[in-house]
Amino acid sequence: MKLREELEKRGLVYQFTDEKLFDLYEKWGQKFYCGFDPTADSLQLGNFVSFMTAVNFMKRKNTFVLIIWWATGMIGDPSFKATDRAMLDEKTLRHNQQAITKQVQTILENLKTISWYDFKFEVINNYDFYKDMSIFEFLSSAGKYITVNNMLSKESVKKRIEDPEMSITYTEFSYMLLQGYDFLTLYEKHKVKLQIGWSDQRGNMVTGTEMIRKKLGGEAQSFVMTFPLITDSTGKKFWKSEGNAIFLDPNKTSPYFAYQYFMNTTDEDVEKYLKIFTLLDFDTVEEIVNKHKQDPSLRYGQKQLANYLISTVYGEEAAAQSIKISEILFGQNDKLATIKTMSKYDLLALQKETGGINITIQNSEFIIQDWNIPASKELKVLDLFTQSGLTESNGEAKKLLASGALYCNENKVIDLQHIVKKEDFINGALLLRKGKKQYKLIIYKV
């Protein structure tokens, strides 16, 4: 399948400046770029759209030039924002750059494991373009090629100027000159001919093609391609969860949380997301969708999507761990059998998701390790429900026990005086449940 056809079929094309770009990048060996503001030390799921668009160029043996917008990141893109962005110090920006670079490398290695494609990328920091340049040099190198009329015509700027409750600083106004000069520098020094980005970035992006044309003449071919804003079937941005961004760093967003996000994908969006966020061929996508439609309640499509995405972003071990945690919290299978197969790290991840506690023994006495509370030589199950936070008090625990709502290792608790013993811990863990869906994992630590 040709590059243009595949990108369009995957829903990754919104606009482009010249269709010649598709023939050029079909031939392999070209460079293209996409930029990321280093405003955090992790990319978000929203960035993954940019990333997967880049991957479709890379799998045709083109080189992805990842630009860290250090200089522009210190200013902030004004596009469709109501206020200035807070500026970051150099130390923070450097840390963020290193973290993002490592993250991209990890994701590409994961994708290589899944797909066997050999992806090529390089990282360039646009700080290097400006660190030794004076304001006079910049204005003569970039400013003279772009008119103020042109800059004012951009929708992202017009909105800020025309709305009486908004404003735009000159610093932000200059953002498009910097982004345009980035493209000019990449074209001249690194032979980069294409920039890809979000549809709302188009105004900034074509500033670069205009600079290249005016400085180097009509023979200099440069291109811009944008991809659309991705929304779900309700019109909500796909990467938002309860108003919070989903990070691609497992220390910021747990793989299980991201897994559940994709498990909650609507049936209407499964096919769309499989095309955008995976490298699965279209026949395979069709097979998944057809099997899913046979019984949507089994959520086969969501499971395939979630497993692929978590394997790509966090690795196959994280995907397997997320599946096990999901089986414990939502599945109908033997939960204790699943716990027996879980590694120490799997159990710790499950404990983190459920907010459980740790138990240890000191001098033949149980200790609730998290608060160093002696639990006596005999550990009553009702005390565990209360200390773990599943019940507010032993009194509430007794009422719930009487109604048959408390479970220990999936056995209904019927004895008020039931004593938990070391032997009750399975694979070093004890699973408490209140009602149908509220769990706490208690881990016994030697």
Task: Characterise this structure.
The chain has 21 helices and 17 strands. It has a 7-stranded mixed sheet, with helices on both faces. Helix 14 packs antiparallel against helix 15. The longest helix has 26 residues. The protein is elongated and about 85 Å long.
Quick overview of this protein structure:
This protein has helices at residues 3-9, 20-26, 47-58, 70-73, 90-115, 127-130, 135-141, 148-152, 155-162, 170-173, 175-190, 202-216, 255-263, 267-277, 282-294, 300-313, 316-330, 335-341, 344-354, 381-388, 394-402; strands at residues 15-16, 31-36, 63-68, 120-125, 192-198, 223-227, 240-241, 244-245, 358-362, 365-368, 373-374, 379-380, 406-408, 411-412, 419-420, 429-434, 438-444. With 446 residues, the protein is of the alpha/beta class. Helix 11 crosses helix 12, helix 14 (267-277) runs antiparallel to helix 15 and helix 15 packs across helix 16.
